[in-house]
Amino acid sequence: MAQDSAASPGKVPRTARGRETLRKLLDAAAAEFGERGFHEASISGITRRAGTALGSFYTYFDSKDAIFTALVRDMSARVATTAAAAVSEGATGLRREREALVGFLHFAREHKEIYRIIDEAEFADPESYRAHYEGTATRIAARLAEGVQAGIVRHGDQEVRAWAIMGMNVFLGLRYGVWDDSRPVEEIAEVAADLLGEGLNRR
Amino acid sequence: MAQDSAASPGKVPRTARGRETLRKLLDAAAAEFGERGFHEASISGITRRAGTALGSFYTYFDSKDAIFTALVRDMSARVATTAAAAVSEGATGLRREREALVGFLHFAREHKEIYRIIDEAEFADPESYRAHYEGTATRIAARLAEGVQAGIVRHGDQEVRAWAIMGMNVFLGLRYGVWDDSRPVEEIAEVAADLLGEGLNRR
């Protein structure tokens, strides 16, 4: 989702300055929800962090629920953009999955609050939670289908594979991104790509 | 965790009847927390579902937090037991992972509340949340190491692999266990085992 469509219906900013305020509010919301959790977070906490007036909040959002939904969708879109940006031009199949994972692991380290926010959406905004994972899995399945077309990925059930790969990435990001970032991202991605590319079986 | 050690310290049941009451309370807690979430759930809701007196609750647990922690650990132990029980005697390597996944997918379908409960532990009881995943990953890594010993699994970083496989299983359980159980469990496990065994690369 482009950040300027993150506002509540009828509240889309029309100026560069408005878009900047909206971005500040979303970043402040990430910090507020990430640190305090959905229930404890407050609109005044968000505007204080953003350094904006309370009125600015209501210029763009109807409620705490509305900015939380916008934030989940914004983070979901940023995960997609980050993964896409991390992939080299023309990379397909395993190389593409590996580069996307490297991008995601860096993102998770830089935005550790993302897990808490997405995971809390399971309770505070189940629709956005589901949309995030369904959207991500659909993108992975499409990448795999392109890899099959290119002749480098084996035929198979791309939907089930996509959910498996997404789960793998999410848990590697939790363990080696959020909880402990002491190991090089490339090292984690190397093990994952080897597992995904060649499998476990000794030949 | 054995169910009779699930009670609060000093409150372990000493009779078969006591253990039965404790089990009833844990099952009722799974339904109460699963349906209403941690914040809305109440001790009286749990005892009503269990058909026990309020006094019985305090015979075994100190608080709502205490039974929630006991429940997360009980579910975590049941996931471990279920996966172990689903594996044929002597199965190693990929066959073992596949059978464990089949067991887990059945468990997720029969206990759909488990996701909500474990996921809510991230917020309500982070220590148990972490212990659940660290414990599960440690078991998977140990299984893989045995597979290497047996000469059927390729050498590699078993810890990273274990987190990848666990994530895969968790997301397949969410998608094909909890959200939509229309596809046969064996079919999902077949795709996952093929991916895990042979990898994506066309040869």
TrEMBL record, chains A, B:
Gene3D superfamilies linked: Homeodomain-like, Tetracycline Repressor, domain 2
Domain of life (superkingdom): Bacteria
Organism of derivation: Novosphingobium aromaticivorans (strain ATCC 700278 / DSM 12444 / CCUG 56034 / CIP 105152 / NBRC 16084 / F199)
Record carries keyword Transcription regulation: yes
InterPro entries listed in its UniProt record: Homeodomain-like_sf, HTH-type_TetR-like_transc_reg, HTH_TetR, Tet_transcr_reg_TetR-rel_C_sf
Organism phylogeny: Bacteria, Pseudomonadati, Pseudomonadota, Alphaproteobacteria, Sphingomonadales
Domain HTH tetR-type residues, every copy: 19-79
Residue ranges the UniProt entry marks as DNA-binding: 42-61
Record keywords: DNA-binding, Transcription, Transcription regulation
Annotated protein name in UniProt: Transcriptional regulator, TetR family
PANTHER family given in the database record: HTH-TYPE TRANSCRIPTIONAL REGULATOR BETI (PTHR30055:SF234), HTH-TYPE TRANSCRIPTIONAL REGULATOR RUTR (PTHR30055)
Gene Ontology MF annotations: DNA-binding transcription factor activity; transcription cis-regulatory region binding
